[in-house]
Amino acid sequence: MTIEYATPYRARSFIPPEPGRPYFVEKGMGDRAHLFGDMFTVYCGGEQTENTFNFFTCEGPKGDVIPSHSHPDTYEVFYITGGAVRLFVEDTAGEQYERLLTEGDFGFVPKNCPHSYRIERHHSRIVGVAAGPGGTFERFFENFGVPTDELTLPRRPAVPTPDKFGSVPQRFDVRFLPEHRWRTGDGRP
């Protein structure tokens, strides 16, 4: 059984709102949000780790490239536990990399590096960890997308309203790069 907590950002959560407390979360029962066609589940974040790292999953169908973005103060890892995900990354010198990651593969994105990804197979899953001097960005998903108690992917894409693009990303160390273009082999915008 998973314990429920009331938190400052959710009426119901399985993650305690304060650091220093051990806890356990059953599969899929973290704080969930739909964003675009994907479901993000946060299992631990800044509140529990004194803003040192977060741990989340992203599940989704085969789809489009998510918007290019960077995190000026956050390092991000992608570990694929199912399916296939194409990761696009540009280093600080401007060299671009593209890699198809499948189950068991790992990708690392340094802070301040433009990146994007595209889920290549239905039912793919990414395990993500983000850490850095600027804290963590796990609350971005529910503030930019739509919080949900559902255990499934969104029935319709959860597309953020235009006003969210202007305010939410900056609060969570996310910088969208609408003019960014991928020059790699399969980096279609």
TrEMBL record:
Residues 61-119 form the Cupin type-2 domain. CDD domains: cupin_QDO_N_C. This is Quercetin 2,3-dioxygenase.
